Amino acid sequence: MTESTSPGNDTLARIAAVIESRKPSHGGDPATSYVAKLFDKGLDSILKKIGEEATETVMAAKDGDAQKVVYEVADLWFHSIIALSHFGLKPEQVLAELARREGLSGLQEFAQRGKAQEDEPND
Ligand SMILES: N=c1c2ncn([C@@H]3O[C@H](COP(=O)(O)OP(=O)(O)OP(=O)(O)O)[C@@H](O)[C@H]3O)c2ncn1[C@@H]1O[C@H](COP(=O)(O)O)[C@@H](O)[C@H]1O
Which of 21, 32, 46, 78 to mutate to test the pocket of ligand 1 (most atoms within 8 A of CB)? Predict the structure, then answer.
């Protein structure tokens, strides 16, 4: 797969657009759409799915099952995009935040926040 055909930011933007179209305000139908059903159930149900998918990601990793890690992270990202949409946010905003952090070491950033050395995020 070449770089130009690799799934990337466009994929996230397209999925986010479909998710947006499933909102009740856009005519999403819980009878025919998983996303519309989740929006219909509300934020707690969306957050519960994120918790489940995060746990399943950890379990797949602990099992050493690399392909399952891919499936579970895809589930986690998908449900996280639904949560972003609930708050009127888009994946682009998360990607922009990651881009902003590029080149800034996590330890450097931690020090800039004035954290004491004994609080280092190493566990
Ligand atoms: N990417 C996804 C996607 N990923 C996961 N899922 C669904 O999310 C649910 C995840 O639930 P679970 O992980 O609990 O899976 P499970 O099979 O129920 O249980 P486990 O065996 O994993 O424990 C399943 O019903 C999946 O089918 C998704 N449903 C939809 N999409 C995208 O969203 C679009 C809109 O979907 P609809 O709103 O349903 O039209 C689709 O065209 C896709 O692009």
Answer: 78
